[in-house]
């Protein structure tokens, strides 16, 4: 499946920061779409941070919990 996301930017006169876009496929689908913005393909990631919460493709929050645990341990070491 190939989706041309650049059509949105042809309707609105704004710049397109290609390096800021990420896509994430939720679940275990075998049909992986590619998203095209002009001459560049948007990167497919297995996890991303949204509004301070790290989520992965399985909607599992173990990476987020591990990150909070690590930050908590480093703050306790300071005390």
Strand order of the largest sheet: 1-3-4
Classify the beta-strand content into a percent band.
25-35%
Distance between the termini: 53 Å
Give unreliable regions as ranges. none
Report the average pLDDT across residues: 76
What is the H-and-E element order? EHEEEEEEH
**Major sheet:** 3 strands, mixed
Structural class: alpha/beta
**Fraction of residues in helix:** 25-40%
The total strand number stands at: 7
Radius of gyration: 17 Å
Based on CA inertia axes, which overall geometry fits?
Answer: elongated
Number of helices: 2
Describe this structure in words.
The structure is a single chain. With 79 residues, this protein is α/β, with parallel strands linked by helices. It is built from 2 helices and 7 strands; from the N terminus they run βαββββββα. It has helices spanning 7-11, 62-78; strands at residues 2-4, 22-24, 34-37, 40-41, 43-45, 47-50, 53-56. The strands form 3 sheets. It has a 3-stranded mixed beta sheet with strand order 1-3-4, with no helix packed on it. It is elongated, with a radius of gyration of 17 Å. The mean pLDDT is 76.
